[in-house]
Write a structure and sequence with these properties.
Blueprint: E1 19-21, E2 24-26, E3 48-50, E4 53-55, E5 64-72, E6 93-95, E7 103-109, E8 114-122, E9 132-135, H1 136-141, E10 150-156, H2 158-167, E11 209-212, E12 215-218, E13 225-226, E14 234-241, H3 244-253, E15 260-267, E16 270-280, H4 283-295, E17 302-305
Parallel strand pairs: 5-9, 6-8
Antiparallel strand pairs: 1-2, 3-4, 5-10, 6-9, 7-8, 7-10, 8-13, 11-12, 14-16, 14-17, 15-16
């Protein structure tokens, strides 16, 4: 398995690393390691730049996004994550570019319906517009460790994340958690071929917690929830405009790349015109098309899944 050498970054003292896709490691990927001496705690972080792109970490309990997930594992076990923890490829964790650490998220594989809970404790991924980088164990549970990527939905678990933030010392940076949480619904579980660690048996109780002092601290439930599978498609969103004329000019410029359309959308009181290419059949095709669109000067272009 190929592996990208860890590169020293001058800005923010960043360390670069690789993530796994398919059955090999993609050497363009990067990961932030914000100092191996940092003690784990609650971290939002300052804006940072990777390959000319700025990222702005922020608290967002309403986060709900679809896109492409990747995973990382061998070669990084034992290294420090951006949160200051030690990376455990068999843990239920993930890397995200902007969500606070820790944040509890619900990740659904839109291709097979498998859903799990994960704790954000690292930064990344920074390749091909992926929206989340999973631990090896998380990829196994979601059934995407062999192909390396999958279309996913990532949702912040708001109340649990507030409780995590308070327990990690967030103070006024996070809202106080409510005293009680609704019980989790009954779930089904399924063992994955080739997995070396069994999935916990089905349960209808709340998410697993550990006790830290007097406060229960939510932790990811080691249970796979099977959700209905609905059709989804990938698109490249090249831009969004308030004026349809601007959108139509970009659509015309991109007509040589693929089928481009202007899609109107109402967001509050504003009407936007999105320029999209697709639908796109495979992740590899989406990566190639995204590279071309960005190369034409559309640096905010991204992969979307709907």
């Amino acid at each position: 398995m190929k592996r990208l050498a860890r590169l020293a970054m001058i800005l923010l003292g960043l360390t670069v690393s690789a993530c796994a896709e398919a059955t090999f490691v993609v050497d363009q990927s990067k990961r932030i390691d914000q100092g191996v001496q940092v003690q784990p705690g609650y971290k939002v972080g300052n804006p940072y730049q990777i390959d000319g792109v700025w990222y702005y970490p922020a608290v967002n309990y309403d986060y709900d996004e679809t896109g492409i997930a990747s995973w990382y594992g061998p070669g990084f076990a034992g290294h420090a994550t951006a949160s200051g923890e030690t990376y455990d490829q068999n843990g239920l964790s993930a890397a995200h570019k902007t969500l606070p650490m820790p944040t509890l998220v619900r990740v659904t594989n839109l291709e097979n319906g498998r859903q799990i809970q994960l704790r954000i404790n690292d930064r990344g991924p920074f390749v091909n517009n992926r929206i989340i980088d999973l631990s090896l164990r998380a990829a196994q549970l979601l059934g995407m460790d062999q192909q390396g990527t999958a279309k996913v939905r990532v949702q912040v678990m708001a109340e649990e994340s507030r409780a995590l933030a308070v327990a990690a010392g967030a103070g006024q940076e996070a809202e106080a958690p409510k005293p009680t949480a609704a019980p989790a619904p009954k779930v089904t579980t399924e063992a994955l071929p080739g997995s070396t660690r069994p999935i916990a048996p089905s349960t209808s109780g709340p998410a697993k917690t550990i006790v830290l002092g007097k406060a229960p601290v939510p932790q990811p439930s080691p249970v796979v929830v099977q959700q209905p599978v609905r059709p989804s498609n990938m698109f490249i969103q090249a831009g969004a405009f308030l004026q349809i004329g601007n959108a139509d000019r970009l659509r015309a410029r991109l007509s040589g790349v693929g089928v481009a359309r202007v899609v109107p959308v109402q967001l509050g009181a504003q009407r936007f015109y999105r320029v999209r290419l697709g639908p796109i059949a495979t992740v590899a095709q989406a990566d190639a098309m995204l590279s071309r669109v960005i190369g034409m000067g559309n640096k905010d272009a991204r992969v979307v899944v709907e």
